[in-house]
């Protein structure tokens, strides 16, 4: 498989393009240039054109495309392939192997959000990237792969019904983990959604009942 335009645009969005060699961290062994191209072939003071940056990106993509095809243990839709290529481009082949090892597609989607740290600290930029990669990955499923809840969900609820709720909130852009546990974070983002969906403040209760569920499906 090859990375689609959607996948390439996602990588470009988060990598950015710099035509002068630089070091994001002074202690890095090598220099970086273009769309995050890093290695011994980049020298200090090096300057490239936009066309050269595009060529480097294409060459780098081949490495990560091959890794995704080699190590992913389940069939991939195009959007899932794109998401994993973007992940590997940012986190490296070793982390890709760790992410997909002994996991099915849903487990990979849920685990992806954990890779948002550098030096043990969570970084907002990495969190945003993981959220967008996971959202792209989830498009590979037909509909929402988690069972829709048939009862009221509220703080303290657990299971796939909560994962459905969290997945719907992720689809709408809320930076939430789909861990199946209805905790304070889920309640907070659900209240935010309800505030945008309902004019009556009484509906902003942080509880997912039939009315909120219907609004989520229509959003």
Brief write-up:
It is built from nine helices and five strands. It is mainly α and 219 residues long.
Topology (elements, then pairings):
Elements: H1 5-15, E1 18-22, E2 31-34, E3 37-39, H2 50-71, H3 78-91, H4 93-100, H5 105-112, E4 117-118, E5 121-122, H6 124-138, H7 160-171, H8 184-197, H9 210-218
Antiparallel strand pairs: 1-2, 2-3, 4-5
Question: Would you kindly provide a written description of the structure presented here, covering whatever features stand out?
Answer:
Helices cover 52% and strands 7% of the residues. By secondary structure, it is mainly α. It folds into two domains: 5-138, Lysozyme, CATH 1.10.530.40; 160-218, no CATH class. The strands form two sheets. The protein has a three-stranded antiparallel sheet. Strands 4-5 form a two-stranded antiparallel ribbon. Strand 4 and strand 5 form a beta hairpin. The protein is elongated, with a radius of gyration of 20 Å. The two termini are 32 Å apart. The model has no long low-confidence stretch (mean pLDDT 92).
């Amino acid at each position: 498989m090859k990375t689609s335009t959607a996948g390439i645009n996602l990588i470009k969005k988060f990598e950015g393009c710099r035509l002068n060699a630089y070091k994001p961290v002074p202690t890095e062994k090598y220099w970086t240039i273009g769309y995050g191209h890093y290695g011994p072939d980049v020298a200090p003071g090096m300057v490239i054109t936009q066309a050269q940056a595009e060529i480097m990106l294409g060459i780098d993509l081949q490495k990560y495309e091959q890794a995704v095809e080699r190590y992913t243990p389940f069939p991939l839709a195009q959007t899932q392939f794109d998401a994993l290529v973007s992940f590997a481009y940012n986190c490296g082949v070793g982390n890709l192997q760790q992410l997909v090892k002994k996991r099915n597609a849903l487990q990979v989607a849920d685990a992806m959000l954990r890779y948002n740290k550098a030096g043990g600290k969570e970084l907002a930029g990495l969190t945003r990237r993981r959220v967008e990669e996971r959202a792209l990955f989830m498009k590979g499923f037909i509909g929402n792969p988690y069972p829709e809840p048939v009862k009221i969900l509220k703080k303290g609820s657990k299971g796939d019904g909560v994962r459905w709720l969290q997945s719907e909130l992720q689809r709408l852009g809320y930076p939430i983990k789909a861990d199946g546990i209805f905790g304070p974070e889920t309640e907070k983002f659900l209240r935010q959604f309800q505030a945008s969906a309902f004019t009556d403040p009484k509906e902003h209760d942080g509880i997912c009942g039939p009315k909120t569920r219907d609004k989520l499906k229509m959003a």
